[in-house]
Design a protein that fits this description.
By secondary structure, the chain is an alpha+beta fold. It folds into four domains: about 120 residues, no CATH class; about 120 residues, Beta-Lactamase; about 80 residues, Helix Hairpins (Orthogonal Bundle); about 150 residues, Histidine kinase-like ATPase, C-terminal domain (Heat Shock Protein 90), CATH 3.30.565.10. It is about 55% helix and about 15% strand. It contains 15 helices and eleven strands. The strands form three sheets. Strands 6-8-9-11-10 form a five-stranded mixed beta sheet, with helices on one face. It has a four-stranded antiparallel beta sheet with strand order 1-4-3-2. A two-stranded antiparallel ribbon has the order 5-7. Helix 3 runs antiparallel to helix 5 and helix 13 packs antiparallel against helix 15. The longest helix is centred in the first third of the chain and has 50 residues. It is elongated, with a radius of gyration of 38 Å. The N and C termini lie far apart (about 80 Å).
């Protein structure tokens, strides 16, 4: 450690003397070509630079060297080091210069320290603010853990890996698997309480520091920091610095009540998993009897005997329509579960946009029976490379919404057009429209406008599912409305492939 300090100071002294030498060359040029007579203030420049960048000792060396060269150039008529020493008033001037240089270097060093301290505090506060926002918005415990790891890595400026309680059961793909085995053994010992911390070589030449994030909160886990390959004498200094930073980080995490937040995040994650499992199980169990009810109602309504009895025919139609609506709601729940579990995996194939539009209208013919349907499709639309099932289900959701929120007898326009490098499938209605707030929240999960919640049934999942399905295919969903009760246009924007397929007339 002492040797490193000596080397650093010697390097600073050499650099300070070089700066004085450069200043002397400049001063000599000014004296001989511009007849400068009193320019000793020039030598305060290397003193300031040395004090700011190199430290107090190099600054004082620069001051003494500047004193000598200043006397040589500006106070001696024959460029000797004897005359200015013999003149008392000149000696006073040079002493004053030395005092001013010393004070200036001290002020420069103090200003640098204050500047660095202010910048460090600013970075810490900015990092803490960012971390607290990420903590508040974290939907799960894993997101909080990632936030802790990133926060500590930013504080230390080193590679930091956070090991949580129970890390032994992590999958091989876990990021902790890349940490050397010696580090993992040291972490196990720290978790058992065998040692509070450890600094050691991992066998490849890298030095690791392993310690608990907080001695008071075991839930914060153990942090392993790769110090790289520093000089042996500098390890202690780096260790002290990191220990100080981690102590501050642990104090900040405790003030943020992170342990409570982790516990709540775990509970939210478990509740969400249970809810999704329950929805999936119930939905699958309902599909079988519902399919039987829907099939039976369809057969009964088509029966000649039932068709002759208007009342029974109407009742059979109600059973079929309600069974179909319930089947759609169950399908929405199953789709929502797939999206939440990240199980949406598109299987793209070449398809004509017109096929998606025509299939959707055929599937929803009964739903659209009370409206006037206008179809506007460009001729010769290019093929698109998407999953036809997911894209079709997304478009069905849009058509259902238009039918639901439009008054009977109104016109619904279904369009398919090319828009630059996209194909746009849109549905325009003359119904309830969207306010500015509703338009900004279209596609949110479970969002329904309060003005419709008591008059129109729904789950708020339709456009969320459509948005998820079209996003999975590389597209986007957009909704435009002039205002409440002024109609809405909802569109799917599907990208055109870079190399469109060529389809012959015989295909």
């Amino acid at each position: 450690m002492q040797l490193a300090v000596v080397r650093r100071e010697l390097r600073g002294v050499v650099l300070a003397l070089l700066m004085v030498a450069v200043t002397t060359v400049i001063a000599y040029f000014l004296v001989n070509y511009f007849y400068l007579r009193r320019g000793s203030v020039l030598y305060l420049v290397p003193v300031l630079l040395a004090g700011w960048h190199l430290g107090f000792l190099p600054a004082m060396v620069a001051a003494i060297a500047g004193l000598l060269w200043s006397g040589y150039l500006f106070y001696s008529p024959d460029y000797s080091f004897v005359f200015f020493v013999a003149q008392p008033f000149e000696i006073i001037n040079l002493v004053v210069f030395l005092v001013v240089a010393a004070v200036t270097s001290h002020l420069a060093i103090s200003m640098k320290r204050q500047t660095e301290l202010a910048r460090r505090r600013e970075r810490e506060m900015s990092g803490l603010y960012t971390f607290s926002r990420r903590l508040a918005a974290a939907p799960s415990a894993s997101d909080i853990y990632k936030g802790i790891e990133q926060h500590l890595a930013n504080l230390t400026g080193r590679k930091a890996v956070l090991f949580l309680p129970g890390w032994h059961t992590s999958e091989p793909s876990d990021p902790n698997a890349a940490v050397p085995e010696r580090v993992r053994v040291a972490i196990s010992q720290i978790e058992k309480g065998a040692t509070p911390e450890s600094t050691f070589d991992d066998g490849t030449g890298n030095i690791w520091l392993v310690r608990p994030v907080s001695q008071k909160a075991p839930d914060f886990g153990v942090i392993a920091i790769d110090l790289g390959r520093p000089q042996v004498e500098s390890v202690d200094g780096m260790r002290e610095q990191i220990e100080e930073l981690l102590s501050e980080a642990a104090a900040n995490l405790e003030r943020l009540d992170l342990a409570h937040a982790i516990s709540e995040a775990k509970m939210r994650a478990e509740t969400e998993q249970l809810r999704e499992a329950l929805i999936g199980s119930v939905s699958h169990e309902l599909r079988t009897p519902l399919a039987s009810i829907l099939g039976a109602a369809t057969v009964l309504r088509q029966s000649p005997i039932i068709e002759k009895d208007e009342r029974l025919h109407s009742l059979a139609g109600v059973v079929r329509d309600e069974a179909e609506r319930l089947n759609n709601d169950i399908q929405n729940l199953l789709d929502a579960t797939r999206i939440s579990r990240h199980q949406v995996k598109p299987r793209p194939e070449w398809i004509e946009p017109a096929d998606i539009v025509n299939t959707t209208i055929d599937r929803r013919r009964r739903r659209l029976a009370g409206h006037n349907i206008s179809i506007d499709m460009d001729s010769n639309l290019p093929f698109i490379y998407v999953d036809p099932v997911l894209t079709g289900q997304a478009f069905v959701q849009i058509v259902d919404n238009a039918a639901k929120y439009s008054p009977p007898g109104s016109t619904i326009t279904v369009a398919a057009k090319r828009n630059g490098e996209e194909v746009e499938l849109s549905v325009e209605d003359k119904g309830a429209g969207l306010t500015a707030d509703e338009q900004s929240r279209v596609g949110e999960r479970f969002f329904r406008a309060p003005r419709h919640s008591s008059t129109i049934s729904g789950s708020g999942l339709g456009l969320w599912i459509a948005k998820a399905f079209v996003t999975a295919n590389g597209g986007r969903l957009a909704a435009v409305s002039a205002g409440a009760d002024l109609g809405t246009t909802v569109s799917l924007h599907l990208p055109l492939p870079a190399h469109p397929v060529e389809v012959s007339a015989d295909d």
